[in-house]
Specification:
This protein is α/β, with parallel strands linked by helices. It has helices spanning 13-24, 26-33, 64-68, 86-95, 105-110, 112-121, 138-143, 160-172, 176-185, 194-197, 200-214, 233-241, 308-325, and strands at residues 2-9, 35-43, 59-61, 75-78, 99-102, 126-127, 151-157, 244-256, 262-274, 286-293, 297-304. The structure holds NADP nicotinamide-adenine-dinucleotide phosphate.
């Protein structure tokens, strides 16, 4: 059985979750893809830190050069976070002839055309299922089984933290600040929640979704973005009186202008839904991605948009599809 050697950049929630699944499901994975997966390196900031996740016999290193210069590494998994150095590491790995899998929407959305071009130039795969919707396999669905559709609309609850906050406000009548503090205490929200609550994370994901569904790349900073930090309990109670829920939505859709020309519209903003729309029932930390294709009609994918194992599951799916093709 061929052994595929890989390196994982990052051993936090995503890198660690990936290692956990590789350990938990090793036998069935290797039987399914008829390959052994060997994790040669894990890149971290601090090699001496105690870690809750298995390291699978990999060498922990803080040197990316050691990884990129090792010709035996065929696949690099990027799960560092932030735009740099993650984007430069992905570029270098592709230039060095390695396939890349990433969960990092910020680095990918900011550099989408350049990274895709780099992958094409070097005849390598760049896969990123985990970057939008965590464990939900919507990107693979858009680019594989649904690829024969013309998409008229993509829309989603793309951020679990904000959905959790809005759900708790609706369900329990708590203020935005009370729920945010509770979410931070439970680890559902970051200490600095700006990227989530101001819609920046959702804009990164919408940029990637639109690039795949519409073949139009919009830099996330060009997407009009409004978060949820100004939503009051009064807004929620008013919505509730009308049988509505407020959700933070990333939305891209085609609309005809006055000359009948189709224009792509996009935004991230809080929107109201009644129970007639499937988005209404998506609560707490769950994500949903709703798409409308001219052949398939309406589809909605629902599931865990974050967390070590759901996100690790999506990263692993990409890793295995590359490993199988080698
Ligand atoms: N968490 C989720 O549920 C989730 C879901 C979907 C996508 N993502 C994306 O996945 C990526 C990783 O998220 P995460 O939650 O796993 O982050 P995390 O828990 O903060 O882990 C980051 C890991 O990367 C290492 N690291 C960071 N910068 C580094 C650098 N410059 N050099 C070497 N190592 C470095 C850290 O090393 P140390 O351990 O030594 O500190 C840590 O192991 C992010 O792009 C995130 O947006 C996350």
């Amino acid at each position: 059985m061929k052994t595929v050697k890989i390196a994982i950049l990052g051993h936090g929630n995503v890198g660690g979750g990936l290692c956990e699944i590789l350990q938990m499901n090793r036998q069935l994975i290797e039987e399914r893809i008829e390959r052994k997966i060997h994790v040669s390196y894990i890149l971290v900031n601090n090699v001496t830190k105690e870690r809750p996740w298995p390291t699978l016999g990999a060498k922990l290193t803080d040197s990316f050069d050691e990884i990129v210069n090792d010709n035996s590494i065929e696949i690099v998994i990027e799960a560092l976070g932030g735009i740099e150095p993650a984007a430069s590491y992905m570029r270098s790995a592709l230039e060095a002839g390695k396939h890349v899998v990433t969960a990092n929407k910020a680095a990918l959305a900011a550099n989408y055309p350049a990274l895709l071009e780099k992958a094409q130039e070097n005849n390598r795969q760049l896969l990123f299922e985990a970057s939008v919707g965590g464990g939900i396999p919507a990107l693979t669905a858009i680019s594989n089984p649904l690829q024969g559709n013309e998409f008229t609309e993509v829309m989603g609850i793309l951020n679990g933290t904000t959905n959790y906050i809005l759900s708790k406000m609706w369900d329990e009548g708590l203020s935005y600040d009370e729920v945010l503090a509770d979410a931070q205490a439970k680890g559902f929200a970051e200490a600095d929640p700006t990227a989530d609550v101001e819609g920046i994370d959702a804009a990164n994901k919408l940029s990637i979704l639109m690039a795949l569904a519409f073949h139009v790349y919009v830099h996330p900073e060009k997407i009009p973005t409004e978060g949820i930090s100004k939503i009051t309990l009064k807004d929620i109670e008013n919505a509730k009186k009308h049988g509505e829920k407020i959700k933070l939505i990333g939305h891209g859709y085609w609309e005809a202008d006055e000359n009948g020309q189709e224009i792509l519209k996009y935004h991230v903003k809080p929107m109201k839904f009644t129970s007639e729309h499937p988005i209404f029932g998506v609560d707490n930390e769950y994500n949903a991605i709703y798409i409308n294709g001219n052949a398939v009609g309406q589809l909605m994918f629902y599931g865990s948009g974050a967390g070590p194992l759901p996100t690790g599951s999506a990263v692993l799916g990409d890793l295995l599809s590359i490993a199988r093709s080698l």
